[in-house]
Amino acid sequence: MENVAPKQDGRGIPMSVIIYEQPLNERVRTLLRLDFLFKQAAHALEDHSAWGSRATINALIDILNVFVRSDLKTELIKELERLATILSPLEHRPGVDQGALGKILRDLERLIDLMQLQQGQIGNGLKDHEFLNNIRQRSTIPGGTCHFDLPAYHHWLNQSSEDRTRDLEGWFASFTPLRDASELILHLTRESASSSRETAEQGFFQQALDTQVPNQLVRVVLAQPTDCFAEISGGKHRFSIRFMRPDEQGHPCQTDKNIEFQLLCCAI
Fold first, then answer.
1. How many degrees, rounded to 5, is the angle at CA 190 between CA 196 and CA 9?
2. pLDDT digits 0-9 by tens, 205-229
3. Contact predicate 11/264, CB 8 Å
4. Which of 68, 82, 64 lies closest to 28, judged by CA?
5. Which of 11, 14, 76, 100 is disulfide-compatible with 6, CB 3.0–4.6 A?
6. Same domain? 65 vs 122
């Protein structure tokens, strides 16, 4: 039988893989969580049933809870400005795709302007929304958003799918600049990766980091199928990777095999 190489993306990563990521600072950690929540909400929004609307509301509440803990707007504006400062000098460097770079710089400038135009913290209007606040308060209780606990919610869920979708899209609209900014920052971070092939001896790998380099994210790429998963821990100075496999009781144990993987260290 002929051996067919797996298809690859633009960074040489085979398509039949699983990727594990570990943020190296709190900002990237928050952006990855937001990215997860926005994708979860987008998927749930396509389900027009009452259960789909519930899942979308749950993601919306989780996003609101992220904003309660920090002033993300200020942090994102600073990060967008930092990236623009780093990338702008490349406009006149030979070998750089000027079209692609120009689009990125325009997107950065557009998002900075949009974020600065928003009054107060992002999502402030929704924090005072009584309907959403009632759901938010009850959602901390197991089963707390049951129909007899929140009759107004039950009433809303029984409206037409068109009405519910219109409400949900309106509530998420205020987050659009932040979602777009988060996606762009993560895209540029991932694209900044230096790639290497590594081997974890008996399932363990460790590497020191240059503290003079703005390391943001570690990515571990494993070819599928595999019976192991990557457990990554790290910070400013170093990171370590343990390749684990669950036993019959589901308890993870470090494998004693040598595991080959692709390592991507993202620094921008």
1. 70
2. 999 998 888 999 999 999 988 889 9
3. yes
4. 82
5. 14
6. yes
End position of a domain, from candidates 183, 201, 230: 183
CA 152 to centroid of chain Cα atoms: 32
Give me the phi and psi of 30, to 5 degrees please.
-65, -40
**What CATH number does residue 236 fall under?**
2.60.440.10
Q: Which domain holds residue 35?
A: 29-183
Amino acid making up residue 243: F
**pTM, full prediction:** 0.85
H helices, E strands: number in the chain: 9, 8
146 and 225 part of one domain: no
Count of beta carbons in the 10 Å neighbourhood of residue 86: 13
110 and 123 both lie in a single domain: yes
Let me know if residue 11 belongs to a domain. no
**C-beta of residue 59 within 8 angstroms of C-beta of residue 42:** no
Both structure tokens of 17 = 């893989």
Within a domain: 3? no
Q: Position of tokens 């809303």?
A: 156
Token pair 């343990």: residue:
242
Other Cβ atoms within 10 Å of 149 Cβ, number: 14
My answer on whether 66 and 178 are in the same domain is yes
Q: Is 245 exposed, middle or buried (0-12, 13-18, 19+ CB in 10 A)?
A: middle
> How many residues in the chain?
268
| Total domains in the fold of the chain | 2
Q: Which residue shows structure tokens 């325009």?
A: 106
How many other C-beta atoms are found inside a 10 Å radius of the C-beta of residue 5? 6
**Residue appearing with tokens 């019959």:** 248
